[in-house]
Amino acid sequence: MNIPAPYLLYLGAATDPLSIKTSRGVADWRRELCVGQRRLPGCDLTLGLDDLSYSEAVARGAKTMILGEANAGGVLSEVSAREVVAALDSGLNVASGLHQRLAQHPDIRAAAQRTGQLLFDVREPPADLPIGNGRPRPGRRLLTVGTDCSVGKMYTSLALERELRRQGRLADFRATGQTGILIAGSGVPIDAVVADFIAGAAEWLSPARSDGGWDIIEGQGSLFHPSYAGVSLGLLHGSQPNALVMCHEPTRTHMRGLPGRALPSLKECLLANLEAAQVTQPEVVAVGVALNTSKLDEASARGLCEQVEHELNLPCEDPIAMGASKIVRRLLECFPDGTAAGAGMFSRCRIGTAARAR
Predict the structure, then answer these.
(1) Confidence at residue 73, expressed as pLDDT on a 0 to 100 scale
(2) Does domain 7-121 correspond to CATH entry 3.30.70.270?
(3) How would DSSP label each residue in 268-319?
(4) Which of 21, 82, 223, 297 is 20 to 30 A from 118 in CA distance terms?
């Protein structure tokens, strides 16, 4: 998907930090492509970019407004629809990660036809995706999984790709969500795929690989989230991951969007994901825990990581605040030559996951 850059990032009137995760992800990982942000009255969030009108953004060279808000169901509000029309009339293309397609809105469709500007619906899956078959395929694949939605699976995946490349290893981030696709320029919006084809979409996204490199597949949802567990399970089966990294936000008091629904423990969640992954990859192992410690002070964050390491016998770190070197070290110990390590090392990898987590 070739979306013209630079970008103006639209935040709307958002007040929930998680509701602008699309804009924030692009700003964090592709900041050099961002000229500013567009905020409406009432928005008290910021990406640290200049606040610009549409005409100001065009004057600074912006080519596309990224509709970077997210809500339950991915619905386009009438306020945002009017803003999209204003952006088009100002000479900007518009890209959206919402489930509702831009061209389905009559005013937006008319504005695009009138101005000749382009509409990009990032959540449009590729055509003719196959049904998953579960047949073993060559390659090394790591999948990030989580205790809940929006706990850092995409950030962790990108950080692991960056650390592997820093060490001279071949690694490619495989995006499965709208923000990741905007960052990577390609991928599959897995939550927009018809359920029967989710596993097949994951197989298509990370095909057989023989160059010794790693596909780092962005996880979605959580096996324990009643709303989104189906997407998580399909990814586990289709990815056939050799390795899992568990992602968690330790200050979360309940499942996102479900007050009163408690999060699973790390041990419980780890075991469930390993068991599900074994359906198509019997030798899967966990290689680390990634904590989102952005709401903790440094001492508390490091203390919690040490506690998790002791409990699970797995490296634990915040891949953004602390780096991902410990998790990558374990990954390369378990898979030094593109396959599993020798019997002794591989046994230790497995003991460091399921056996110790029980």
Answers:
(1) 62
(2) no
(3) HHHHHHHHHHTTT-TT-EEEEEEE--TTS-HHHHHHHHHHHHHHHSS-EE-T
(4) 21
